[in-house]
Design a protein that fits this description.
The complex is a heterodimer of chains A (110) and B (395).
Chain A (H helix, E strand, L loop, with lengths): L1 H16 L2 H5 L1 H4 L6 H12 L2 H13 L10 H7 L9 H15 L7
Helix pairs in contact in A: 4-5, 5-7
Chain B lengths: L6 H4 L3 H62 L13 E5 L5 E4 L12 E4 L2 E7 L9 E7 L3 H67 L7 H28 L8 E5 H18 L3 E6 L3 E5 H17 L6 E7 L2 E6 L29 H11 L3 E7 L3 E7 L1
Parallel strand pairs in B: 7-9
Antiparallel strand pairs in B: 1-2, 1-5, 3-4, 4-5, 6-8, 9-10, 10-12, 11-12
Helix pairs in contact in B: 2-3, 3-4, 4-5, 5-6, 6-7
The chains are: A mainly alpha (110), B alpha+beta (395).
C-alpha cells in the first residue's frame, strides 16, 4: 500500500514539474514526423518577428484552417488539421511564449 | 575743344562707390547662391551615379547571402555559424527591426532606404521575400568608395571658382554699364567747366586789377559801397575760377613743396575775404600759434580759401568764424546753418551741394579733400543744424 502511495506521489510530482507547453503540445506532436523545431522554422519563414510569429501560432491554434496553415499541402493531406485548442487565452499565451523561447534564433547564431 | 577725362573723373565718387559696392555685394551673393545650388545638384547627381554603379554589385552580394541564409535556415539548429564573406559584411533583422545577427562595422541602419552612406560605409538594404531564420531585412555593408567624392569635390572647387571668376568679370562689366550714364554726365560737366574756365581768366583779372588800382579816398561814399560790392562779387568769381582751374588743370601738375608759415597765410586769406565777411557782418575770432608746414603753397591756399569761403557763405548774418591753429591741428568753426548728420559722409563728393541758397558748383570741399589726402592730413567734420559746423584738420 505504501509503495503504491509513493509511486502515485512521484507520478503527481512529475506531472506538476512539466510546464503547460510540455503537457499540452509535446504529447500530440511527438507522433508527427515534423518536429516542433521544424514547425517553428516554418512559422519564422512566414511571420519573421516575435510578435508576428506568436500571433500567427495563436490564431492558428484557435481557428485551425488549411488555408492559414504554415505546413505543406502534403503534410496536411496526410495528417490533417489539428483540433481547436482547449486552452484558455492565458494558458495559450504561456504555452506559445515557452515555445518561442525554446526555439527562437536570437543569440543562437555565431 | 577736345578734352579728355581727367584724373578726378576717372576716380569713383563715394556715392558711385556705394552703388557699385551694393550692386556687387548683391550680385556676388546671388552668384554664390547659384553656384552653391549647382554644386549641390552636381554632388547629388554624382552620388546617385555612384549608388547606381554600386547597387548592381551589392544586389549580387545580397543574392549570394540570401542563398546561404536559406541553407542555414534548413540546417538550423544543427548548423549555427552565420555565413561570412571577405568581400562584404552583413546583418539580418526581423520584421520588427530586431537584430537577429550582425557582423557589420557600422550598426547605424536606415531601414527606409535601399542604399545609403553612413560613417564611411555603404549599406544596401535588401527586403527578403522568404524570411529565412525570421530575417526580413538583409543588410550588406562595404567600405565607402571615396574616389568619386574626391573627384566630385575637385570638380566642384574648380568649376565653382572658375564660374565665380567668370561671373565676377561679367558683373564688373555690368556694373560699368550701369554706372556709365552717371559717369558720362560728370564728364560732360567737366568738359563744360573746363571750356568756360578758360574764357573767365582775362576779364576777371582785369576787373580785380582795376579795382585795386582805384583810389577810393576821393570817391563818394555811395560809389565806394558800389565798388566794394563789385570787389566782393569779383573775388567770389575769382575763388570759383581758381577752384575750377585747380580741378581741370593744376591738380595734375608737379608739387612745389616749400615751408609755409600757416598763421601768416591764414591772415592773408582772411584779409582777402574781409570784404566778403564784412558784407555779412561776420566777426573773425582768431586763436593762432606759429605753425610751419611743408607743402605746396598754392594747394594749401586752396584748402584755406575753400574752408573760409564756406564758413562765410553758409554763416548767419552777424555770426562769427573761429580759427584755431596749433601744431598739428587747425580748426575752423562757423555759426552757420550746419549740415545734416546723414549728409556729412557725402560732403566731399564732387558736385555735391547741400544748400542751394548759395552759389557754386559743389567742387570746393572735393578739392579740399583731395589735397588733404595728398598730404595725409585728416579732416573731421562736426555739425549741428542751425548751430554751425566745425572742421578739424589734423596732421
Amino acid at each position: 500500500m505504501v509503495k503504491k502511495i509513493i509511486v502515485l506521489m512521484i507520478l503527481i510530482s512529475a506531472l506538476s514539474a512539466e510546464n503547460i507547453y510540455e503537457r499540452n503540445c509535446i504529447p500530440c506532436h511527438k507522433h508527427l514526423p515534423t518536429s516542433l523545431q521544424q514547425m517553428f522554422k516554418e512559422y519564422l519563414l512566414v511571420y519573421s518577428g516575435e510578435q508576428n510569429v506568436k500571433a500567427g501560432i495563436k490564431h492558428y491554434l484557435k481557428y485551425p484552417n488549411r488555408s492559414i496553415s504554415v505546413m505543406s499541402e502534403l503534410f496536411i493531406d496526410n495528417f490533417g488539421i489539428k483540433k481547436k485548442t482547449m486552452l484558455s487565452p492565458e494558458e495559450l499565451d504561456e504555452a506559445v511564449n515557452i515555445y518561442w523561447e525554446k526555439f527562437k534564433v536570437f543569440n543562437k547564431l555565431k | 575743344m577736345l578734352v579728355s577725362k581727367n584724373r578726378a573723373t576717372n576716380s569713383l565718387l563715394k556715392s558711385e562707390k556705394k552703388s557699385l559696392l551694393r550692386f556687387l555685394a548683391l550680385y556676388t551673393a546671388l552668384v554664390t547662391l547659384l553656384i552653391i545650388l549647382l554644386s549641390i545638384f552636381y554632388y547629388q547627381s554624382q552620388e546617385k551615379l555612384m549608388f547606381s554603379n554600386q547597387r548592381a554589385e551589392l544586389a549580387q552580394y545580397a543574392y549570394i547571402q540570401t542563398k546561404r541564409l536559406k541553407v542555414l535556415h534548413y540546417f538550423f539548429p544543427e548548423r549555427t555559424t552565420y555565413p561570412r564573406d571577405p568581400r562584404f559584411k552583413s546583418a539580418i533583422y526581423d520584421i520588427e527591426y530586431k537584430k537577429i545577427f550582425s557582423v557589420l562595422e557600422n550598426e547605424d541602419i536606415h531601414f527606409d532606404k535601399d542604399i545609403y552612406i553612413t560613417h564611411k560605409y555603404l549599406h544596401f538594404v535588401k527586403l527578403l521575400d522568404t524570411y529565412y531564420l525570421g530575417s526580413k531585412y538583409l543588410i550588406i555593408e562595404i567600405p565607402e568608395d571615396t574616389v568619386w567624392k574626391k573627384e566630385a569635390w575637385k570638380q566642384i572647387v574648380i568649376g565653382g571658382v572658375s564660374s565665380l571668376i567668370l561671373f565676377m568679370i561679367f558683373g564688373l562689366i555690368l556694373a560699368r554699364l550701369f554706372l556709365k550714364p552717371m559717369r558720362d554726365s560728370i564728364v560732360l560737366l567737366d568738359r563744360f567747366i573746363k571750356d568756360t574756365t578758360h574764357e573767365l581768366n582775362t576779364p576777371l583779372s582785369s576787373i580785380l586789377t582795376n579795382i585795386e588800382m582805384m583810389d577810393t579816398a576821393i570817391m563818394a561814399e555811395k560809389n565806394r559801397k558800389k565798388l566794394n560790392r563789385i570787389n566782393i562779387a569779383a573775388k567770389t568769381v575769382s575763388q570759383l575760377y581758381r577752384d575750377l582751374t585747380y580741378l581741370t588743370l593744376e591738380q595734375g601738375q608737379k608739387d612745389h613743396k616749400e615751408e609755409i608759415e600757416l598763421q601768416g597765410l591764414i591772415r592773408d586769406r582772411i584779409e582777402y575775404f574781409t570784404a566778403l565777411a564784412n558784407s555779412k557782418r561776420l566777426a573773425f575770432k582768431l586763436d593762432m600759434e606759429n605753425v610751419i608746414i611743408h607743402a605746396d603753397k598754392q594747394k594749401i591756399t586752396r584748402v584755406i580759401d575753400n574752408l573760409i569761403s564756406n564758413a562765410i557763405k553758409y554763416n548767419k548774418r552777424g555770426g562769427s568764424i573761429g580759427i584755431k591753429l596749433r601744431i598739428g591741428v587747425m580748426e575752423i568753426t562757423d555759426t552757420g546753418v550746419g549740415i545734416e548728420e546723414e549728409k556729412i559722409p557725402f560732403i566731399f563728393d564732387r558736385y555735391m551741394r547741400f544748400n542751394q541758397s548759395e552759389g557754386g558748383f559743389g567742387v570746393g570741399l572735393s578739392i579740399v579733400k583731395k589735397i588733404l589726402d595728398e598730404y595725409q592730413i585728416r579732416i573731421e567734420v562736426y555739425s549741428k543744424i542751425n548751430e554751425g559746423t566745425r572742421m578739424v584738420l589734423r596732421w
